[in-house]
Amino acid sequence: MAGGVAINIQDNHVFDDAPTEGTRTYAIIVCIFASLGGLFFGYDQGVTGGVLVMDSFVNDWCVGWHEQTYKDCTAKSSSLPNRWIDYTLWYNMTYNIGCIFGALLGGWVADKFGRRVTIFNAGLLFCIGTSWVCFCPAGAHASLLAARVIQGMGVGNSSFSLPIFGAEMAPKELRGFLSGFMQMTIVTGLLLANIVNLIVEDDKHGWRVLQQATGINPMFSYGGLIFKDVVGDGILSVLILSIVNFVSTIPAMRWVDTFGRRQLLLIGAVGMVLGHVVSGISFTAGCDGNTDDSGCSKGAGYIIIIGTAFFIFNFAISWGPVCWIYPAEIFPLNVRAKAVSLSTMANWVMGTCMTWVVKLFPSLNINGVFFLFCGTCICSGVFVYFLCPETKGILLEDIEALFHKGDGYKKNASPKYVEVETPVQAA
C-alpha cells in the first residue's frame, strides 16, 4: 500500500499544490475547539465599551467617589472629572498590562510544559480574574484593578497559545483558516457582549453580569463614550459596530487561504486609512473637532459611524485574523514558542499604549485622534509592502527560506509541491 507525501519542488518545474494527508478531521475539530478560548477575549473587550457608560457601573465606581455626582460622571467626554477619566484609563490599562505578562510567561510555559498546559492555564487565570471582578464590592477601586490584571494574564496567555497551536496542528492548505479561527471567536464574543450590554443596560447589577460571563481596541473600549456624545446612544452604536465586525470576519476566514495574507493586509490598510479619513473629516466639519456642549450635528454623527464601520470591515477581513496567523507561521520550530510569545507581548504593549488615547482627546480633539490612526495605518501598509512575503499554502518548514533575501528573495514567491507515492508497509 502507498501513502502520499508533499514534496517541495525547487527547480523550474511547476506543479499544482497537493493537500497533505493525515487526520484532517481530527486536526480541524481540535483547532476549532481550542479557538473557543477567544470568546472570553472578545467578550471582555466588548463588555468594556458598554460598561463604562452603563449607569450601574457609574453608580458603583464613580458617584460619591471624591464627592463626584451622577451629573459629573455622565457629562460629555470632554467634561468628565479628571479622576474618573484616569480610573477608566487604568481599568483598561491594568487589563493590558496583565495581557503583556500573560503573553511573556506563555512562551516559557509552552516550551517547558507544552501548548495544552498553556491553554489550560489561560482559562484558569481568566476564571479567577472574572470571579474576582464579579464579587468585588462597590468602591473597592484598587481591588477591581488587581482583578483586571489577572483577567488580562489569562487573555494574554490564550492570545499567544491558540494561534500557535492552530498553526502547528493544521494542514497547510487550511492553516490560515484554523490558525485564524480565534479571531472568529473573538468577534463572536464582542458581538455577544454588546447584545448583553443592551439587554442589561438598565439593571443595577448589569455590569457585574457582564463581567461574570465574560485599537481597533480604542473603538470598542472608548466607542461608547465617543458615540454617546455624537448620536446619543453609545451602547447601541458599539453593538452596530460589533455586528459589522462579526459579519466581516466570516468571509475573512476563507479569504486568508484564498487570496493570501499579504494581499489582504495591503487591501485592509488602504481601507482602514479611508475609514479614518471619513470619520476625521466628519468630526472636523460636524463637531468642530470635539464633543463639547456646543453639540455635534446628528448627520455628522451618522457619517462618523459609517466611516468607523468601513474601517472595522477592512480591519476584520485583514489585520484582525492575519496578525494572529502570520507570527505563528514564520518562526522556526526551535524558537517558535518564545518568538510568538514576544510578538504577542508586543501586540499587547501597543494595546496598552492605545488605552492612553483617551488622554489625547483634549489636546488633539477626537478628529485629531482619527487622523493619527490614519497615519499609523499608512505606516503599517508600507511595512507589509516592503518586508512581509506571502506564506499562503507553504509548509511551516519552508517558510523560513522566504526571509533569506540573499537566496532570490521575492515578496510573492511560493514553493510548489507535488504529491509522490512512497511505500508503506501493510499492517
UniProtKB/TrEMBL annotation:
<dbReference type="InterPro" id="IPR050360">
    <property type="entry name" value="MFS_Sugar_Transporters"/>
</dbReference>
<keyword id="KW-0812">Transmembrane</keyword>
<feature type="transmembrane region" description="Helical">
    <location>
        <begin position="364"/>
        <end position="388"/>
    </location>
</feature>
<comment type="subunit">
    <text>Homodimer.</text>
</comment>
<dbReference type="GO" id="GO:0016020">
    <property type="term" value="C:membrane"/>
</dbReference>
<feature type="transmembrane region" description="Helical">
    <location>
        <begin position="264"/>
        <end position="283"/>
    </location>
</feature>
<feature type="transmembrane region" description="Helical">
    <location>
        <begin position="89"/>
        <end position="110"/>
    </location>
</feature>
<comment type="similarity">
    <text>Belongs to the major facilitator superfamily. Sugar transporter (TC 2.A.1.1) family.</text>
</comment>
<feature type="transmembrane region" description="Helical">
    <location>
        <begin position="117"/>
        <end position="140"/>
    </location>
</feature>
<protein>
    <recommendedName>
        <fullName>Hexose transporter 1</fullName>
    </recommendedName>
</protein>
<feature type="transmembrane region" description="Helical">
    <location>
        <begin position="25"/>
        <end position="43"/>
    </location>
</feature>
<feature type="transmembrane region" description="Helical">
    <location>
        <begin position="177"/>
        <end position="200"/>
    </location>
</feature>
<dbReference type="InterPro" id="IPR003663">
    <property type="entry name" value="Sugar/inositol_transpt"/>
</dbReference>
<dbReference type="GO" id="GO:0005351">
    <property type="term" value="F:carbohydrate:proton symporter activity"/>
</dbReference>
<feature type="transmembrane region" description="Helical">
    <location>
        <begin position="303"/>
        <end position="327"/>
    </location>
</feature>
<dbReference type="InterPro" id="IPR020846">
    <property type="entry name" value="MFS_dom"/>
</dbReference>
<dbReference type="InterPro" id="IPR005828">
    <property type="entry name" value="MFS_sugar_transport-like"/>
</dbReference>
<feature type="transmembrane region" description="Helical">
    <location>
        <begin position="234"/>
        <end position="252"/>
    </location>
</feature>
<dbReference type="Pfam" id="PF00083">
    <property type="entry name" value="Sugar_tr"/>
</dbReference>
<feature type="transmembrane region" description="Helical">
    <location>
        <begin position="339"/>
        <end position="358"/>
    </location>
</feature>
<feature type="domain" description="Major facilitator superfamily (MFS) profile">
    <location>
        <begin position="30"/>
        <end position="427"/>
    </location>
</feature>
<keyword id="KW-1133">Transmembrane helix</keyword>
<keyword id="KW-0472">Membrane</keyword>
<dbReference type="InterPro" id="IPR036259">
    <property type="entry name" value="MFS_trans_sf"/>
</dbReference>
<feature type="transmembrane region" description="Helical">
    <location>
        <begin position="146"/>
        <end position="165"/>
    </location>
</feature>
<dbReference type="InterPro" id="IPR005829">
    <property type="entry name" value="Sugar_transporter_CS"/>
</dbReference>
